[in-house]
Design brief:
Elements (H helix, E strand, L loop, with lengths): L13 H4 L20 H4 L2 E6 L5 E6 L5 H12 L7 E6 L5 E3 L6 H4 L7 E6 L13
Parallel strand pairs: 1-5
Antiparallel strand pairs: 1-2, 3-4, 3-5
InterPro entries: FERM_CS, FERM_domain, FERM_N, RAC1-GEF, Ubiquitin-like_domsf
Protein name: FERM, ARH/RhoGEF and pleckstrin domain protein 2
Pfam families: FERM_N
């Protein structure tokens, strides 16, 4: 292709003509506070209330299924009979709802940063056919 000959100049904006500095924005950080690295912004920090009323924070990726969180909780607590435990959270109408293991967490919980999940005991296994008489 042919090249265009001539001289070029950069058009100035109104602020540049008046000698204004480039805007840097307004920071809402406290003095000494820094932004989190990009890697940490991609993780959710979910608060879980355990059976002894202690709070634990678990880091998961937002698109993970509920089973990922359940597995992390069970590993930290060294639970063996995992079928009898589940996670509950309150929806917008303040009803307690079980966390679905097969659905992504961000599809179930509207504001994951503000919610407190609680570990709860299910009094039934997921498959009632597994029950046996003692």
């Amino acid at each position: 292709m042919g090249e265009i000959e001539g001289t070029y100049r950069v058009l100035q904006t109104a602020g540049m003509r008046l000698g204004a500095q480039t805007p840097v924005g307004v920071s809402t950080l406290e003095p000494g506070q820094t932004l989190l690295p990009r890697m940490q912004e991609k993780h959710l920090h979910l608060r879980v209330k355990l059976l002894d009323n202690t709070m634990e924070i678990f880091d998961i990726e937002p698109k993970c299924d509920g089973q990922v969180l359940l597995t992390q909780v069970w590993k930290r607590l060294n639970l063996v009979e995992c079928d009898y435990f589940g996670m509950e959270f309150q929806n917008t109408q303040s009803y307690w709802i079980w966390l679905e293991p097969m659905k992504p967490i961000i599809r179930q919980i509207r504001r994951p940063k503000n919610v407190v999940l609680r570990l709860a005991v299910k009094f039934f296994p997921p498959d009632p056919g597994q029950l046996q008489e003692e």
